[in-house]
Fold this sequence. Notes:
Elements: E1 7-16, E2 19-23, E3 29-33, E4 44-51, E5 57-60, E6 71-80, E7 83-87, E8 94-97, E9 110-117, E10 123-126, E11 145-153, E12 157-162, E13 166-171, E14 184-192, E15 198-201, H1 207-223, E16 227-228, H2 236-243, H3 247-259, E17 263-265, E18 270-272
Parallel strand pairs: 3-5, 13-15
Antiparallel strand pairs: 1-2, 1-4, 2-3, 4-5, 6-7, 6-9, 7-8, 9-10, 11-12, 11-14, 12-13, 14-15, 16-18, 17-18
Helix pairs in contact: 1-3
Amino acid sequence: MPKLDQVNRLMIASVSPKGVLVDAKELGPVFLREAPKDSKVGDSLNVFLYNDASEQITATAAKPLVALGECAYLKVVSINEIGAFLDWGLPKDLLLPYAEQAYPVREGASYVVYTYLDNSGRMVATTMLHHHLGETSETLKVGDRTELLIAGKSDLGFKAVINGEYLGLIYHDELSQPLRFGSRMKGWIKNIREDGKIDLSINTLDTQTRDQLELRILKELHQAGGRIELSDKSSPEVIFSVFKVSKKNFKRALGKLYKQHDIVIHSNYIELAEK
């Protein structure tokens, strides 16, 4: 049986001047919005099924910004007495009830939400991600590459949705670039804590990449005549502007080069060591 609030593969049942209908099987013939101009009876296509503003089951060939059981970064377009309404790419806005707001939301601002069915069977949004996404995992392992969605911020760092299923944390000192809510990026499992919580990194963890950073620093020093105006005391922003890495990884590379007697570290610059 076709499922509401999800993409279904359905066949076109009829084409007329009044519009296109798709065969939604047990749900009957359903009007198709945004139908392709060359639609023909018998064509099979992916459509999204949902209840429109009149609570009529409707299909659309347009792809919404989120489906049931997914996370997305959506904009608040209006607020009334029952909650906020989000733009999810369809004519009927998506409800974010007051009871599902972890914090007050503002009209015109965007937030990371998760979608689920409420007690009446209606798809709604929530910013209480921890109620639906796991904060621990028995399947993720240190070093696993993941897909991240930046969802929030705390005193320790940025909270991220992992593979659409779990929540993890990127510590501030791990940042190699400024982060924005709603950004999607690659990440890695850095650590699984004793309590099962997941620590993340957006910097590659392989030895080859770390070695390449050390070589880049040496190359930069040689090209600059043996000295560059960076040190382990430089700001994360300045370090990132030059090497596109976090301050922590930069300091780690400097420490290894120093132990190998390749460089000398001063308070506001580094230079090649005399050999």
